[in-house]
């Protein structure tokens, strides 16, 4: 499924029926990325589950980011942060049920849930209210039982059903700790993860996807044979550039000592430029791979 975001279509491609997590701290750009996905992807139906969102941000998202055209093919289920914990918990289940309704009728559904973390917080609040003993960082065991019950419902339909639920779940990592209990549990259930990095956002590149830490487990089956080496080479160049860029800034880097580092210093900025994408711009995988190939063929 083409998502319309170059960073994802290139380095974390998604197939129909896949479940992917978007991991980020607060204020990094999860909601903006969801708006880009709503405008760039082309499923039959989009289902939004906005769990624990701020009321002002919710109205802004519906009226400004979606607009009448996108809203016409969307279903929005929301429970703002001031609603009771059972309402926030059931909003996620209601959205999943709506997505299953369209999937079972042969539709391709894109489910965007923001966020699984607030769903888990609502489940924790309910568990503690019934005096369930807290376990990991204050989360009772029932939270980690509910997460797979919710997330595993997304995916392809039963045999003979042409529909599928392609789901992207945002995960709010506290203090940029990607190993906190909810994030760790969700990462083990889903078919891949996309990491949004605050440092990349502060540097001015949007969407701030850290492609080196992002992974789609279905990428080998999604990418064409000629695309796989291109993506692997781009990853290698970006990784090498990350190792030497501090030396470049300090003026301590000497060209000619390491051909691989020389290529990374020359080509990585062009690759980063390909990954940069304005909010209102939609792309497609064909153009994205053509742009990446052109950036990597530049000669200094």
From TrEMBL:
**Location(s) in or outside the cell:** Cytoplasm
What SMART domains does this protein's entry cite? AAA
Q: Which reaction does it catalyse?
A: ATP + H2O + cellular proteinSide 1 = ADP + phosphate + cellular proteinSide 2
Keyword set, alphabetical order: ATP-binding, Cytoplasm, Nucleotide-binding, Protein transport, Translocase, Transport
Using the record's annotation, list all stretches that form the AAA+ ATPase domain. 16-201
Q: Identify one Pfam family in the record.
A: T3SS_ATPase_C
Which PROSITE patterns does the record associate with it? ATPASE_ALPHA_BETA (PS00152)
Q: Which SUPFAM superfamilies does the record associate with it? A: P-loop containing nucleoside triphosphate hydrolases
What is the superkingdom listed in this entry's lineage?
Bacteria
Note whether Disulfide bond occurs among the keywords: no
Q: Which GO terms describe its molecular function?
A: ATP binding; ATP hydrolysis activity; protein-exporting ATPase activity; proton-transporting ATP synthase activity, rotational mechanism
Cellular component annotations (GO), alphabetically ordered: cytoplasm; type III protein secretion system complex
Its BP terms in the Gene Ontology are:
protein secretion by the type III secretion system
Kindly give the NCBIfam families that the UniProt entry links to this protein.
fliI_yscN
Q: Which PANTHER family match?
A: ATP SYNTHASE, SPI-1 TYPE 3 SECRETION SYSTEM ATPASE
What name appears for this protein in its UniProt entry?
Answer: FliI/YscN family ATPase
Species of provenance = Neoroseomonas soli
């Amino acid at each position: 499924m083409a998502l319309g975001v170059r960073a994802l279509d290139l380095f974390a491609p998604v197939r129909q029926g896949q479940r992917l997590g978007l991991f980020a701290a607060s204020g990094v750009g999860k909601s903006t990325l969801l708006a880009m996905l709503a405008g760039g992807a082309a499923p039959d139906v989009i289902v939004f589950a906005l769990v624990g969102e701020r009321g002002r941000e919710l109205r802004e998202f519906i009226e400004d980011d979606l607009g009448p055209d996108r809203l016409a093919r969307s279903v929005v289920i929301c429970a703002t942060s001031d609603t009771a914990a059972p309402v926030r918990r059931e909003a996620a289940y209601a959205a999943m049920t709506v997505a299953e309704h369209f999937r079972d009728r042969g539709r391709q559904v894109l489910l965007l849930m923001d966020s699984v973390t607030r769903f888990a917080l609502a489940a924790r609040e309910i568990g503690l209210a019934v005096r369930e003993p807290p376990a990991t960082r204050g989360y009772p065991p029932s939270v980690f039982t509910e997460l797979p019950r919710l997330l595993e419902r997304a995916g392809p339909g039963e045999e003979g059903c042409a529909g599928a639920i392609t789901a992207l779940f945002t995960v709010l990592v506290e203090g940029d700790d990607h190993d906190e209990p909810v994030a760790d549990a969700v990462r083990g259930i889903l078919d891949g993860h996309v990491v949004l990095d605050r440092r990349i956002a502060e540097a001015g590149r949007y969407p701030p996807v850290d492609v080196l830490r992002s992974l789609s487990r279905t990428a080998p089956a999604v990418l064409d044979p000629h695309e796989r080496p291109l993506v692997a080479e781009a990853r290698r160049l970006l990784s090498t550039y990350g190792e030497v860029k501090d030396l470049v800034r300090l003026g301590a880097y000497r060209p000619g000592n390491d051909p691989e580092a020389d290529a990374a210093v020359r080509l990585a900025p062009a690759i980063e430029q390909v990954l940069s994408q304005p909010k209102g711009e939609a792309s497609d995988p064909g153009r994205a791979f053509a742009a990446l190939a052109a950036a990597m063929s530049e000669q200094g």
